[in-house]
């Protein structure tokens, strides 16, 4: 499936992080990449993050956390309910393939694909997100109400589990059918209500690190590299008029001590690459049962392709000589052929290998034993 009737450049120039946009079935041939039974099956798996919301009244939502027993869905009765499953792209290749159509936004900004299934009247309540989202109607029909701009000061209802808006200022209403896409920028209130019993919505969310996350993570990283001997000094201390004063010169030297380390752009780039590429679910182990050897990797590359694990994050940062590849929180400085290969690997989820040298083979061996890549023989 391809976004055949959609102009990414025009969208980025006019709507990205500016205003909601309804995109009426822009696909060449839309087909929902997952069915309700498969989604319910994922929600029963202990390694998959899932939630169930049951609407017990007009203003009353109850939240349950997965994994669920299969019988739970048969016991829900006539009450409107919604099942939400996170990171479905990690487990269903056909869902992961959808992300290729949204790579007009850089990979480091893409988070995952959450999928919801709802019965008539089901929804998660009026809310706002702090990130961009494309809402793709997979099956059935859903009505989306678009509301006001929100921020941290926007009043919320008293609910121990959910961040639901206390007030909703309806400004637009869109009824979506299969293949329709609704883009919602960060901070815009929205409320989706299923219009039938076969309503499935795929939500492509984007990462947006907060300033607090960046400052905390980066400063903690810098602190880890500082020793006790790295201290303030003033060997040319002048005699000052008042002993109680912290002089402007002293303050300038103190602040410079802080900013000098925090302003190291090269080190920040390496830290952020690791921070950003860290796996969403670090406890999941994708590594092979038995570690591969260099000989096995060499044989695998002779007549096969490299396949990226859809659950792994691949990004890179260019440096003066080559680049640094980041995969699942690990960094790989690459030059020459390894740099060219790493860049190609970040561009596609499967690539052919043409006579890899020792540097490329060493990179492949490490990535394969981490479960970030696998090999597939050509037909």
Automatic annotation (TrEMBL):
Residues 94-223 form the JmjC domain. One of its GO terms (molecular function) is metal ion binding. Keywords: Dioxygenase, Iron, Metal-binding, Oxidoreductase. InterPro entries: JmjC_dom, NO66-like, ROXA-like_wH. PROSITE patterns: JMJC. Pfam families: JmjC_2, WHD_ROXA. It comes from the Bacteria. The keyword Metal-binding applies. Its cofactor is Fe(2+). SUPFAM superfamilies: Clavaminate synthase-like. Coiled coil: none annotated. This is Cupin domain-containing protein.
């Amino acid at each position: 499936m391809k976004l055949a009737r959609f102009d990414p450049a025009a969208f980025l120039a006019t709507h990205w992080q500016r205003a909601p946009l309804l995109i009426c079935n822009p696909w060449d041939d839309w087909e929902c990449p997952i069915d309700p039974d498969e989604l319910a099956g994922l929600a029963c798996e202990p390694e998959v993050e899932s939630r169930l919301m049951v609407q017990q009244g007009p203003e009353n939502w109850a939240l349950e956390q997965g994994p669920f027993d299969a019988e739970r869905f048969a016991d829900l009765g006539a009450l409107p309910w919604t099942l939400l499953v996170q990171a479905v792209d990690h487990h269903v290749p056909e869902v992961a393939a959808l992300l290729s159509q949204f790579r007009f936004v850089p990979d480091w900004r893409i988070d995952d694909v959450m999928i919801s299934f709802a019965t008539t009247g089901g929804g998660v309540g009026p809310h706002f997100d702090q990130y961009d989202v494309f809402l793709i109607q997979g099956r059935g029909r859903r009505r989306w109400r678009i509301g006001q701009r929100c921020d941290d000061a926007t009043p919320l209802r008293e609910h121990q589990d959910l961040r639901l808006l206390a007030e909703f200022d309806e400004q637009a209403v869109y009824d979506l059918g299969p293949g329709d896409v609704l883009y919602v920028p960060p901070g815009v209130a929205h409320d989706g209500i299923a219009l039938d019993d076969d309503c499935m919505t795929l939500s492509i969310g984007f990462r947006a690190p907060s300033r607090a996350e960046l400052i905390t993570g980066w400063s903690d990283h810098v602190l880890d590299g500082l020793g006790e001997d790295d201290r303030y000094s003033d060997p040319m201390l002048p005699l000052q008029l008042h002993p109680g004063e912290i002089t402007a010169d002293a303050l300038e030297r103190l602040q410079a001590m802080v900013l000098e380390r925090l302003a190291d752009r090269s080190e920040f780039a390496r830290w952020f690459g690791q921070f950003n590429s860290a796996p969403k679910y670090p406890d999941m182990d994708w590594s092979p049962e038995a570690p591969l050897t260099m000989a096995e990797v060499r044989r695998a590359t002779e007549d096969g392709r490299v396949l990226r694990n859809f659950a792994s994050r691949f990004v890179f940062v260019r440096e003066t000589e080559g680049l640094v590849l980041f995969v699942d929180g690990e960094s790989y400085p690459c030059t020459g052929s390894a740099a060219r290969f790493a860049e190609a690997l970040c561009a596609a989820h499967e690539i052919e290998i043409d006579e890899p040298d020792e540097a490329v083979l060493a990179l492949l061996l490490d990535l394969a034993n981490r479960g970030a890549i696998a090999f597939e023989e050509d037909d």
